């Protein structure tokens, strides 16, 4: 890698929850650096100046739940390994045009043989302008989930965990023992036998435990949080509808008496609605699909106003992302995309995933909630990074973070991607 030092000028930077004018951004060796060390230790100035021409510079966007794109499904294990690798690369490269510089490829409920073949190919991998967005480890969605809230998942592969962590290892294979190098997030239903009891063992491996595809009651959800669950998968979808006497999983957003976290990592920062305003929020993060189909804009607004620092924008995009309406495959099942971009199990009205892109999610979130540009961007940068415990290197423009960032035109009040850098390398968005 080149030893060159780069300096971005004429930029407005997203720093410390605000947009800062007339600041410079320095980077070298794929990392954001502090210029003071250059001046006093190395007596160097920048080798190359990059003029941002007044654009907003923000951290690269992060998608923690994406099933595939461009007719490629991450749960597809048919064909030779080399072909699957090529397909993964195709998606990783394609995501860059939307400002997505890091992602968790998501695998829906599958047989053990699928996980054994696919998960080794989805291990953590650094991003590059040529190779595509960084892979942050897989998001495994199921098979420890509820039959009642199965969505598009194949019920015949569902399991329980009556033998605890041993059942998780049996389901996912050897990759699970590598922790978050291989598996970053597991979505599970806390009411399934043995699941909640296994949460501490999964957390000890560095894996983020997310509650989803669940019929759980509020008490079961809160117990899972006390055991270490720190996320909700696609809030409002594949869970009980809110009921005033037992609000189910959705009700965790209103929890006021969960034990305060002992450490900040993997927990939301405090907000005006937090149980304690100067300590990390004990309520979990929540993924939310802002395509206007999966969740009504009013519901997005309610979630945001109850727990603003917990919002994590996800696409839950599937193989049809980037393609026209038609019939595609997800986890071995036929799904159909209509003219609005909504995707259903073929012949039903059961939603199977979205075709929205992460930059669209940012624009929609801002529009639905009337939040600031900063808040909308942080829901796709800082919040997912904190969710995964990687906010020391992702989701910020602080010194020491990876030089993944996007140049955004926000002149209309909404953000549009103009340039993308991954690990300090400029992406050719024409490809």
Query: Unreliable stretches, pLDDT < 50, 5 or more residues?
Result: none
How helical, in percent, are the residues?
A: 10-25%
CATH topology of the largest domain: TIM Barrel
Q: CATH H level of the largest domain: which superfamily?
A: Metal-dependent hydrolases
CATH class of the largest domain: Alpha Beta
| Biggest sheet statistics | 9 strands, parallel
Overall domain count: 2
**Which architecture of the largest domain does the CATH hierarchy give at level 2?**
Alpha-Beta Barrel
Distance between the termini: 23 Å
Q: What is the arithmetic mean of pLDDT?
A: 95
* Total beta strands: 23
Write a concise keyword list for the protein shown above.
nine-stranded parallel β-sheet, alpha/beta, Urease, subunit C, domain 1, TIM Barrel, 431 residues, single chain
Report what the structure shows.
By secondary structure, the chain is of the alpha/beta class. The chain folds into 2 domains: 6-58 and 398-426, Urease, subunit C, domain 1 (Roll), CATH 2.30.40.10; 59-388, TIM Barrel (Alpha-Beta Barrel). It is built from 10 helices and 23 strands. The strands form 4 sheets. Strands 6, 9, 10, 11, 12, 13, 14, 15 and 16 form a 9-stranded parallel β-sheet that branches. Helix 6 (218-227) links the parallel strand 13 and strand 14 (231-232). It is globular, with a radius of gyration of 21 Å. The model has no long low-confidence stretch (mean pLDDT 95).
């Amino acid at each position: 890698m080149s030893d060159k030092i780069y300096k971005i000028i004429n930029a407005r930077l997203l720093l410390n929850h605000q947009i800062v004018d007339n600041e410079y951004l320095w980077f070298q060796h794929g990392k954001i650096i502090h210029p003071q060390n250059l001046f006093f230790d190395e007596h160097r100035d920048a080798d190359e100046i990059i003029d941002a021409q007044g654009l907003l510079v923000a951290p690269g966007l992060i998608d923690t739940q994406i099933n595939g794109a461009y007719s490629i499904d991450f749960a597809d294990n048919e064909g030779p390994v080399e072909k699957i690798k090529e397909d993964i690369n195709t998606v990783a490269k394609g995501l860059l045009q939307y400002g997505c510089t890091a992602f968790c490829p998501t695998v829906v409920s599958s047989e053990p043989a699928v996980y054994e073949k696919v998960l080794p190919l989805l291990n953590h991998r650094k991003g590059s302008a040529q190779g595509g967005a960084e892979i942050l480890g897989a998001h495994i969605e199921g098979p420890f989930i509820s039959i009642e809230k199965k969505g598009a998942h194949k019920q015949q592969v569902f399991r329980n965990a009556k033998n605890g962590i041993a059942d998780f290892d049996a389901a996912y294979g050897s990759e699970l023992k590598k922790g978050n190098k291989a598996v970053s997030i597991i979505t599970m239903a806390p009411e399934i036998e043995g699941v909640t009891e296994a949460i501490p063992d999964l957390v000890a491996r560095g894996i983020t435990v997310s509650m989803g595809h669940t019929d759980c009651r509020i008490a079961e959800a809160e117990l899972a949080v006390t055991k270490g669950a720190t996320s909700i998968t696609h809030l409002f979808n594949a869970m009980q509808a809110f009921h005033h006497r037992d609000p189910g999983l959705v009700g965790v957003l209103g929890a006021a008496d969960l034990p305060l976290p002992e450490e900040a990592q993997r927990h939301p920062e405090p907000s005006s609605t937090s149980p304690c305003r100067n300590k990390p929020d004990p309520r979990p993060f929540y993924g939310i699909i802002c395509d206007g189909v999966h969740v009504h804009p009013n519901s997005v607004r309610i979630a945001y106003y109850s727990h603003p620092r917990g919002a994590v924008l996800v696409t839950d995009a599937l193989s049809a992302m980037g393609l026209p309406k038609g019939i595609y495959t997800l986890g071995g099942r036929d799904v159909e995309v209509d003219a609005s971009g909504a995707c259903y199990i073929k012949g039903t009205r059961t939603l199977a995933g979205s075709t929205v892109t992460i930059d669209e999610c940012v624009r929609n979130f801002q529009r639905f909630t009337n939040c600031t540009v900063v808040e909308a961007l942080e829901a796709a940068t800082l919040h997912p990074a904190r969710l995964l415990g990687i906010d020391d290197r992702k989701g910020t423009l602080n010194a020491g973070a990876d030089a993944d960032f996007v140049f955004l035109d926000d002149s209309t009040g909404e953000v549009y991607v103009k340039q993308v850098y991954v690990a300090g390398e400029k992406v050719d968005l024409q490809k």
